[in-house]
Design goal:
Helix content: 25-40%
Number of strands: 7
Radius of gyration: 26 Å
Strand content: 5-15%
Oligomer: single chain
Largest sheet: 3 strands, antiparallel
Length: 405
């Protein structure tokens, strides 16, 4: 952004926005009577909405600011809990302080606030006003959402990964982030802070897609068979981005840096490590996160002695959704395709223990399961699986008369 676009307040804000009737000093402090820039900016508050917006936004938006402590964009609580789970419980003193310094310098900078969503770009994207200080009820995808979520979600959703088309919701409908992610989810309404998937207000496929909604009888039957067993993304996602081997460091000037392997693009389906009534699926898509046992070694050795307490392949909701994908074109495209599933050989040796809860069990080929049939290969080629594995059947049909009557 040009400097004038980043910092100049527009006349639209002063004349048309109700917030423009409030004196600048009411929120930002400083000295309204000063005659110099330095004097006017004395004790200035750059972002009066972070970390506590109760004084700046609270007088009018108390119902939202009261939820600030549950807003994961502000607290980063799910990330903190995941790091804490892997940490050395005996880490203390200067070692614990160095780890905290590393987290603050590298990992906790990507937070947001009321202002960094509704008035300006996030600090991690360089800051700057997006519309001359006008308050936007719905923040724009670009730059606001994409500034923080661009490398994975933004690139996936808009089709910027080579060879992978954009998500059907974007490509065919032009849907923006807020079409699925509403204010209640963003602000933390009615949710805890342990995990974003545990929030009651999170985005859900069935908000728009009825459980049995499908364009063909085959699709409808497939949905009923796989319901509560396989996540929607396992059938409808294309390859998405995975990161590995992150190490934190600094350059000679003390600037925080990180080093990681080049990202990879693929799809991996594994076990849901913590099924709940709300998310009962046995099989889900998994994404590799870049943590290693030595991520923090530059700052303090042995910080992550509890590395094996959490998988490095975690449940994910890729934004590469398509109605038709290679794995859902027919049943055997998934059930006979070991490459889709997270197996032990896909997992680095020093990460296998951590990922035992999510590694998929060995795949049993469809032909082996149907070797009781005469002319097994011919049946599998000619007969639709749904004919015998229909959703209305209590168990698969094993009666030749079902077809040969």
């Amino acid at each position: 952004m040009e400097p004038q676009d980043q910092f100049l307040v527009s006349t639209d804000f002063l004349e048309r926005d109700v917030h423009g009737t409030i004196a600048c000093t009411t929120c930002h402090g400083g000295d309204l009577t000063a005659t110099s820039k330095e004097g006017a900016h004395r004790d200035i508050i750059r972002d009066p909405t972070y970390p506590d917006p109760s004084q700046s936004c609270g007088p009018c938006h108390r119902d939202i600011t009261a939820l600030n402590g549950k807003n994961v964009h502000v607290t980063l609580e799910p990330f903190k809990r995941k790091v804490a789970r892997r940490c050395n419980p005996e880490l203390s003193g200067s070692a614990a302080g160095k780890l905290e310094d590393a987290l603050e310098a590298h990992c906790m900078t990507c937070h947001s606030s009321c202002g960094q969503c509704h008035v300006s770009r996030p600090d991690t994207a360089g800051g700057g006003l997006t519309q001359g200080h006008r308050f936007m009820g719905t923040p724009p995808d670009d730059p606001n959402c994409i500034s923080c979520h661009g490398t994975r979600v933004g690139d996936e959703y808009r089709g910027r990964n080579e060879g992978i088309p954009g998500d059907v919701h974007y490509r065919s409908r032009g849907m923006t982030c807020n079409a699925c992610h509403h204010g209640d989810e963003m602000h933390g309404a009615g949710q805890g802070t342990t995990d974003r998937y545990g929030t009651e207000t999170r985005a859900r496929c069935d908000e728009c897609h009825a459980a049995d909604g499908a364009k063909t009888m085959h699709e409808a039957a497939s949905h009923r068979i796989h319901r509560d067993r396989v996540s929607c993304q396992a059938c409808h996602a294309l390859p998405y981005k995975h990161c590995s081997n992150c190490h934190l460091t600094q350059d000679s000037a003390g600037t925080p840096l990180f080093e990681a392997d080049p990202p990879s693009l693929n799809i991996k389906i594994g076990l849901n490590p913590a099924p709940t009534e709300d998310r009962p699926d046995r099989y889900v898509t998994l994404r590799h996160v870049p943590v290693t046992p030595h991520t923090f070694d530059f700052y303090t050795a042995s910080a992550l002695t509890g590395f094996d307490r959490a998988p490095t392949w975690k449940p994910a909701t890729p934004h590469t959704i398509q109605r038709k994908t290679p794995q859902n074109r027919r049943c055997t495209a998934c059930h006979d395709n070991e490459a889709l599933f997270l197996t032990e050989k896909d997992v680095a040796v020093d990460e296998r223990r951590a990922n035992r809860p999510v590694i998929a069990p060995p795949l049993t080929r469809t032909a082996s399961l149907h070797d009781w049939l005469p002319e097994t290969a011919l049946h599998l080629e000619r007969i639709d699986c749904i004919d015998c594995h229909g959703p209305s059947a209590a168990s698969p049909v094993k009666n030749c008369d079902h077809c040969h009557n």
